[in-house]
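Hi everyone,

Forwarding the result from last night's run.
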Amino acid sequence: MVEENVICIRNGQHPLQTLTVQAFVPNDCNLVGGSGDSSGRSSDVASLDDATDGSFQTNKDASIIVLTGPNHSGKSVYLKQVALIVYLAHVGSFVPAEDATIGVVDKILTRISTRESVTGAESAFGHDLRQTSFLSRAATRSSLIAVDEFGKGTRSDDGAGLMTALIDHFSHLGPETPRTLIATHFHEIFECRLLDQSAKGIQYGHMEVRMNRGIHGKDDITYLYALKSGRCTSSYGVLCAELNGVAPDVLARANVIALMLAQNKRLGVACARMSREEETLLEVAEKVARRFMATERNVIRGFKEGAEARKTLMDILAAGGSTPHEYTGDR
């Protein structure tokens, strides 16, 4: 334990998760909070385009680590393990790490999991907003902030905007920036460069996975749970859904929609597409309509008996390939 505003953990582990798995993959964490004056921040900041070189390269001046990666890859566990190690150090306990240097923390503020209850008078998203509002106001340069997937309870563009604004808020606090860990699936934040490019002290990491081509030509994902430099470009949500037993027809439809989104195509056209049965009925209806229009009007006007008119119409329907009672019922 030190007075410097740092968190340096080497090969840290989650103290509870390690009890539930055969082998836990340890990860490092290095954060430097604001110094309280204008001289405590270097301009050497990790770039959005930094390439991954097989290890998590620590930026010595990073106050904020932004994590990306697929579902189930270990982002939430990483956030929790850092917070738990810091807490254990403050209560005088040994910590699950090879070594750790922990600067004194005045608060551990989190937006990680939403505990829903019928006794609450607000939605899950409202609860998330209240938590985030509190931590953004209560945080100091000596605090530890852990935010996991903030903004996921509303429209994706609104959620991405909220997450971007939150990262910008902390990155512009300068010497008052708290030590901050953020995990997100909003890849458009980085694809569209929504973050202020002049922001200092941000480092980007991702939880490593390996994509393999299966024996049937399908992609397969292997989770390595190791923290690496740079950012992930996809959350592989459909693959994660397949691993969790989602129905094949749902997965197939999800892949089609995901591809159209990636190609910036109009989803309204695809979602309004008729089924094969509907197309067949439309073809029949078109044939009937065309045959009816081809019937001479003076022939129809000349009908004096209802039975004769009925027979002619029935013939038109039958010639169009439809069953007359589909249109006429018992009349």
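The chain is about 35% helix and 20% strand.

Cheers,
N.
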